[in-house]
Amino acid sequence: MLEIKCPYCGKRSQNEFSYGGDAAVKRPELGKEVSDKEWDNFVYLRKNPRGNHREFWHHVAGCRQWFKVLRDTSTHEIFKTARLDEEL
Amino acid sequence: MQKYSIFSLIKNAFSNHKNWEVAWKDPEPKKQYDVVIIGGGGHGLATAYYLAKEHKITNVAILEKGWIGGGNVGRNTTILRSNYMWDANGLFYEYGMKLWENLSQELNYNVMYSPRGIINLAHSDAQLNTYSRRGNSMRLNGIDAVMLGRDELKKMIPFADFSSSSRFPIFGGLMQPRGGTARHDAVAWGYARQADSLGVDIIQHCEVTGFEVQNGKLTGVQTSRGDIKTKKVGLCVAGSTSLLAEKLNMNLPIESHVLQACVSEPVKPFLDHVVTFGAGHFYCSQSDKGEMVMGGDLDGYNSYAQRGNLPTIQHVLSEGVAMFPNLSRLKMLRTWGGIMDMSMDGSPIIDKTHIEGVYLNCGWCYGGFKATPVSGWTFAHTIAQDRVHELNSKFRLNRFSTGHLIDEKGVGTKTWIG
Ligand SMILES: Cc1cc2nc3c(=O)[nH]c(=O)nc-3n(C[C@H](O)[C@H](O)[C@H](O)COP(=O)(O)OP(=O)(O)OC[C@H]3O[C@@H](n4cnc5c(N)ncnc54)[C@H](O)[C@@H]3O)c2cc1C
Ligand SMILES: [Zn+2]
Questions:
Q1: Closest by CA position to B206, among listed B51, B43, B24, B62
Q2: Structure confidence by residue, pLDDT tens digits, A37-55
Q3: Whose CA is nearest to atom 51 of ligand 1?
Q4: Which residue from B29, B191, B204, B276 could staple onto B45, CB 3.0 to 4.6 Å apart?
Q5: Is residue A39 a part of any domain in this protein?
Q6: Are A6 and A56 in contact (CB under 8 A)?
Q7: How distant is the Cα of B400 from the closest Cα of chain A, in angstroms?
Q8: In this complex, is the C-beta atom of B256 within 8 Å of any C-beta atom belonging to chain A?
Q9: Residue in A18, A22, A73 nearest the CB of B418
Q10: pTM of this prediction?
């Protein structure tokens, strides 16, 4: 069982959260011409490291806020969580 | 190679089975190979076998960082089927079913292919409609499919919840009678033994750590047991694909996720088919030993851990109990996990890459075991002829940027659903 520290509510069980994937993904700027390559990167390409991973989680059965988590994908250890407007 | 038969069995009985030949050798890596296959799972072993058998390329090495069969091929729930709607999937997996039907003879190894039928349960009229659409598409592609009504199902799977208080009443189902199961280890060992006998070097405890590329062409691989020269390399490393691709500066539309499965204590035969729950993601069958073999959803976050967490098992088994209430009385024997190479549209990639001599076989998601023979067959063709075969011509790497997705279920890595 993962225990995840929501930056707003504190430590809660994994059951209350849902996963949002790679937190480094950025949507191409609005109103700008987007190449197929850029769009492909944004929609389909994700970081997939073994080790430290910055990722989004959603406290869906709690405060419903999105936030960032630094987690090791080979051990599942969680090092740090932060609000979206904070550095992780 | 010593052929397995009733006669060799009797003959070896006289020497107390002490004089059987080893099934495959343990060679030292050579300095150079025509083709190097990375990963001694089902797909790597099958690829090497078909390279030697169909394309007469025998100066081939399989490099496996652990031992052959220790990855997903030894961890899956062994369901075989070709019950797909899109042509790209249906025709590919159906070719695979034909290979399964003859595989024990072909490999002279009993892979225990058991065409016990796979049943997808439907729990609403709408779901039955989509199943008949899929069933019709299957039949147009020459794949066996039958619709089953509630009364037929009552006779076939009497222990399912047919009560009036059922939360997800069973309306009917779609069955592929030739679908079923096979013995996973035997598949790996059978391919290994034949590949070895055709001259392939199976090199275990040999991890590929890097690649030599010059002017856009592959020239060799670096391994934990020294450098090896080769002009062609095939990646068959399932959940580890992104890690090797990174060494080639490639970023792939793949995420690695852990999928768990579990088996119960053994009980007397009570389930003759493979059955999947239609109101969630749960599937089960009964092994020859009597255990209920069960699986369902991914844990749902990127992972290379080969083990998952209890909440997913609880979630999956609560679906199981909704389908077969008597499962709640069984004790669980074991749970385990494997690392899935989840592609972004849920379909595989078998293709060349922009680097000459580097070939990619990945994106198997939940369902790569059933593909083992046809994946090996088409990948061997792609490597030997340096072009895709018609059967894998839709499983291209560039389909994501060109928009030609094969979104059979529209799930992908499921990252964004929650
Ligand atoms: C719990 C579970 C249930 C499943 N159920 C089903 C099912 O019912 N039906 C179905 O069709 N599919 C199922 N699958 C999926 C199926 O098992 C996989 O898609 C398939 O086995 C993957 O191909 P493989 O056999 O070649 O992979 P693997 O057996 O994982 O082989 C890959 C090999 O590559 C090796 N490797 C990795 N990196 C390196 C390196 N750098 N150097 C050398 N070697 C390396 C690994 O050690 C491993 O042995 C399931 C999977 C799991 C985990
Ligand atoms: Zn919260």
A1: B62
A2: 899 999 999 999 999 999 9
A3: B76
A4: B191
A5: no
A6: no
A7: 7
A8: yes
A9: A18
A10: 0.97
Is residue A59 in a domain?
Answer: yes
Angle CA B205–B208–B214, to nearest 5: 155
Whole-number mean pLDDT of chain A?
A: 95
**Is residue A87 assigned to a domain?**
yes
Q: CA-CA distance, B84 to B138, in Å (whole number)?
A: 7
Residue nearest ligand 1's atom 20 by CA: B368
Q: Indicate the top mutation candidate among B63, B72, B309 to test ligand 1's pocket, ranked by most ligand atoms within 8 A of CB.
A: B72
Rg (C-alpha) for chain B, rounded Å, is 22
B401, B407, B414, B417: best mutation site toward chain A, by most A Cβ within 10 Å? B401
Report pLDDT digits (tens) over B31-52.
999 999 999 999 999 999 999 9
Q: ipTM value of the model?
A: 0.96
* CA dihedral over A15, A21, A23, A29, signed as positive or negative: negative
CATH of the domain at A4: 3.30.2270.10
Q: What is the extent of the structural domain holding A16?
A: 1-25+49-88
Nearest to B363 by CA among B100, B371, B303, B35: B371
Ligand nearest to the CA of B205: 1
The predicted model gives B50-61 an average pLDDT of: 98
Ligand 2 centroid, distance to A3 Cα (angstroms): 12
Residue among A1, A22, A58 whose CB faces B309 most closely: A1
Under an 8 A CB cutoff, do B302 and A14 touch?
A: no
How many domains would you assign to chain A?
Answer: 1
